[in-house]
Design goal:
The chain has an eight-stranded antiparallel beta sheet. A six-stranded mixed beta sheet has the order 2-3-1-4-5-6, sandwiched between helices. Strands 22, 23, 24, 25, 26 and 27 form a six-stranded antiparallel beta sheet that branches. It folds into five domains: about 170 residues, P-loop containing nucleotide triphosphate hydrolases (Rossmann fold), CATH 3.40.50; about 80 residues, Elongation Factor Tu (Ef-tu), domain 3; about 70 residues, Elongation Factor G (Translational Gtpase), domain 3 (Alpha-Beta Plaits, 2-Layer Sandwich); about 110 residues, Alpha-Beta Plaits; about 110 residues, 2-Layer Sandwich (Alpha-Beta Plaits), CATH 3.30.70. Helix 7 crosses helix 8 and helix 12 packs across helix 14. With about 600 residues, it is an alpha+beta fold. It has 14 helices and 32 strands.
Length: about 600
């Protein structure tokens, strides 16, 4: 075990984690030549397109007489759960900060996560080759954050390779070997998983005590089910079989597990005959943004269910349950970590499984206290009780941390105030960079706040959030009616002061999208039975007198009166057919 080093790479988005990982793989011989383009560990098509890491990647690197287990983690705030579970499998972490951007919001959040897990933090300033690099200044800021000397901050360029050899030696020197006993009862942490059509569930583990060998029996503490291990291996970076995984090592195993719901991230693997204590400290992530997914086109409810079940194994951070809509039929209610997370999950389902999905507008969970009942959480508008039955409503609120250059301070504060945020405090990292702390309603955060922040700061501001709490709020359910019939897929729970603007926006877009009928169509928005906005789609006028060439004018009048009566009847009994494209266009924004 003294020859094992388990470490992770953590940083704010786009500070060079994956490029640095490639350089380490090149130096240690696992990667033939650094290509300088897409990082080799970002294998998912979405990762290549967006230039971000979505899934944490574990690699076991044989180097000299050592075994280095590296985990490359995502940097976006919506994927912080990937970071938290990866850190549980490590003894140290490399905190990377860009020399051009300096300390960002996720830098501080990741630093705090590493401290909570009692990990050795190895500070690195990357991109020192860039024209706008502020290497000395950023090194001093990082040293101040960690309470160390600036000389202890390692300076590298992952792009050119400068300083990476020295960094690797420091990682080996500063990372403590794992502690544990390979002769004790088996204790291993499940930190990730994936699915293979032939092998079943592939379980990624960090072994703390004991050994895992083929043909031995194991059990999971959460379910108590017993399995026989079939295959054991490590990632280099592709799967490679090994004879066993001992205490301190990171790898994977298969055990013909076919039921997707049996493996739980953060669960402890142990011996069924001599059960060990669970590995402490792993927090189950609670989703807080909810949306309903419905199959459209050639996709069936069964196809969507199977795709969700398979993806849920790879990404245990989202929850799902079946539901039924009067308008859209059978579908599923999913819970996410944020709006980007929702977007990624939807794209992965569509690309990897070749299905088509209609997603409803994202909603947060409100805590509702009804008269004579215990408070309960509601995220679906169709579950919203009548106002007369509601005693109090509490909405989720986050502590938002924004780091921005001084010149964009005013723009960022204005944006926050427009989003009903409450000022808490302001601190300067240095004379040019400010940390803002606000209380922000979660519903305002998921409605495009991140992209708006990037717009007003020209991409320089960064954002993180923590400590979700519930505060009393005045919210209403906004119903959308087409010819007097409520369309539940378009209903939404909105803060009272923004409900009218939301209603007007939806109705004006509906008016442009719904095809004109042979009768007039009324579009209305209601709050508690009261109409607050209305739009009208005029009827198509058919030229009924086109066939009349001259002749008595009364003949023409008679045809026009007949048409008028017909339109009245159609309006009374007609049902507007809303094409699925209408929902898609309305809900995609």
């Amino acid at each position: 075990m003294k020859n094992i080093r388990n470490f992770s790479l953590i940083a704010h988005i786009d500070h060079g984690k994956s490029t640095l990982a490639d350089r380490i793989l090149e130096i240690t011989g696992l990667l033939k030549k650094y290509s300088g383009s897409t990082p080799s560990l970002d294998s998912m098509s979405l990762e290549k397109e967006r230039g971000i890491t979505i899934k944490a990647k574990a690699v076991s690197i044989p180097y000299r007489d050592l075994e280095l287990n590296l985990i490359d983690t995502p940097g976006h705030v919506d994927f912080s759960y990937e970071v938290s579970r990866s850190l549980k499998a490590c003894e140290s972490t490399v905190l990377i900060v860009s020399a051009t951007d300096g300390i960002e919001a996720q830098t501080i959040a990741n630093h705090n996560l590493a401290k909570e897990n009692n990990l050795k933090i190895i500070p690195v300033v990357n991109k020192i080759d860039m024209a706008g690099a502020r290497t000395d200044e950023v090194s001093e800021n990082v040293a101040s954050l960690l309470g160390i000397s600036p000389d202890e901050v390692i300076r590298v360029s992952a792009k050119t390779g400068e300083g990476v050899d020295f960094l690797l030696e420091k990682i080996i020197e500063l990372t403590p070997p794992p502690r544990g006993n390979s002769r004790s009862t088996l204790r291993a942490l499940i930190f990730d998983s994936s699915f293979d059509t032939y092998k079943g569930v592939i379980v990624y583990v960090r072994v703390f005590d004991g050994e895992i060998k083929p043909l031995t029996k194991i059990t999971t503490l959460a379910t108590g089910k017993v399995y026989e291990v079939q295959e054991i291996g490590v990632f280099r970076p592709h799967p490679q079989k090994v004879e066993k995984l001992s205490a301190g090592e990171v790898g994977y195993f298969t055990a013909s597990i076919k039921n997707l719901g049996e493996i739980k991230i953060g669960d402890t693997i142990t011996d069924p005959k001599n059960s060990a204590q669970p590995i402490p400290g792993f927090k189950e992530i609670k989703p807080f943004v909810f949306s309903s997914f419905y199959p459209i086109g050639n996709t069936t409810e069964k196809m969507l269910r199977e795709a969700i079940m398979k993806l849920n194994l790879n990404d245990a951070s989202f929850t799902w349950q079946p539901e039924q809509s009067k308008t859209l039929g059978l579908g599923f209610r999913l819970g996410f970590m944020g709006s980007l997370h929702m977007e990624i999950i939807q794209e992965r389902l569509e690309r990897e499984e070749g299905i088509e999905i209609l997603a409803t507008a994202p909603q947060v969970e409100y805590l509702v206290k009804e008269k004579g009942k215990e408070p309960h959480l509601i995220s679906r508008p169709d579950e919203w009780p009548q106002k007369s039955k509601i005693e109090k409503v509490y909405e989720p609120q986050v502590t938002a941390i924004i780091i921005t250059p001084q010149e964009y301070l005013g723009s960022c504060m204005k944006l926050l105030e427009e989003r009903d945020a409450k000022y808490l405090e302001m601190n300067y990292i240095n004379p040019k960079k400010v940390i803002l702390k606000y209380k922000l309603p979660l519903s305002e955060m998921i409605a495009g706040f991140y992209s708006d922040l990037k717009s007003v700061s020209k991409g320089y501001a960064s954002f993180d959030y923590k400590n979700i709490e519930y505060v009393e709020a005045d919210v209403e359910k906004v119903e959308i009616l087409v010819n007097g019939i409520s369309v539940e897929a378009l209903a939404s729970i909105q803060r009272k002061e923004k409900a009218y603007y939301f209603a007007r926006e939806i109705l004006s877009r509906l008016k442009k999208l719904i095809p004109r009928q042979l009768f007039e169509v009324a579009l209305q928005a209601k709050i508690q039975g009261r109409v607050i906005a209305r739009e009208t789609i005029p009827a198509i006028r058919k030229d009924v007198i086109a066939k009349c060439y001259g002749g008595d004018v009364t003949r023409k009048r008679k045809l026009l009166e007949k048409q008028k009566e017909g339109k009245k009847r159609m309006k009374r009994i007609g049902r507007v057919d809303l094409p699925q494209e209408v929902f898609f266009e309305i809900l995609k924004k």
